[in-house]
Amino acid sequence: MFKAAFKFAGKLILAAVLGAAAAPILARAVLPLHAQAAPGAIVIDNFTFSPPRLLVKTGTTVTWTNRDDIPHAVAAVSKLFRSKALDTDEAYSFIFTAPGTYEYFCSLHPRMTAVIVVEAASDDAAGH
Ligand SMILES: [Cu+2]
């Protein structure tokens, strides 16, 4: 009788321990599907925008950081955005709210070109 009750309690404790151990694993597996607005980071160095083509979702803040030892600037071909000249280690950010292909260049060195492709976030796509 006591033995049976003890066995039963042991099973409950085992279940509780397993449950506690499984919870963080489940949380880790589920979370990345939600709150993931991958930030966009572009590095300017050696007269080059890297990456030359960046794919982001709507609502993403893209930040350009000048790691070159001379000034550069960021200017959209469409004139949607335009930074001032960025000295070494200075940064410029722009939030992309609409899907599209955004070509841009360095207004100080117009041969430096690159592109940002903005895709609708999955939540947006469902509403349209
Ligand atoms: Cu430049």
The CATH superfamily title of the largest domain: Cupredoxins -  blue copper proteins
User: DSSP strand (E) fraction?
Assistant: 25-35%
Q: Provide the list of bound ligands, each named once.
A: copper (II) ion
Q: Distance between the terminal alpha carbons, to the nearest Å?
A: 65 Å
* Chain-averaged pLDDT: 79
CATH fold-type name of the largest domain:
Immunoglobulin-like
CATH class of the largest domain: Mainly Beta
Secondary-structure element string: HEEEEEEEEH
- CATH architectural grouping of the largest domain: Sandwich
Number of strands: 8
Give the overall form.
globular
Coarse structural class: alpha/beta
Give the fraction of residues assigned to helices: 25-40%
Number of domains: 2
Question: What are the main properties of this structure?
Answer:
128 residues; alpha/beta; Immunoglobulin-like; 2 domains; 4-stranded mixed sheet; 2 helices; 27% helix; globular; binds copper (II) ion
Polypeptide structure, described:
The structure is a single chain. This protein has 128 residues and is of the alpha/beta class. The chain has 2 domains: 2-33; 40-127, Immunoglobulin-like (Sandwich). Helix content is 27%, strand content 33%. The chain is built from 2 helices and 8 strands, in the order αββββββββα. It has a 4-stranded mixed beta sheet with strand order 2-1-4-6, with no helix packed on it. The protein has a 4-stranded mixed beta sheet with strand order 3-8-7-5, with no helix packed on it. β7 and β8 form a beta hairpin. The radius of gyration is 25 Å and the shape is globular. It binds copper (II) ion. Copper (II) ion binds at residues 72, 106, 108-109, 112. Copper (II) ion (CU) is lined by residues 72, 106, 108-109, 112.
